[in-house]
Amino acid sequence: MQVDVSVSVQMLRSAYRTACENSNEIIARVGDADSPMAKPQGKSPNLRAALLAVIEETARHAGHADIIREQIDGRTGR
Question: How many CB atoms lie within 10 A of CB 27?
Answer without folding.
Answer: 13
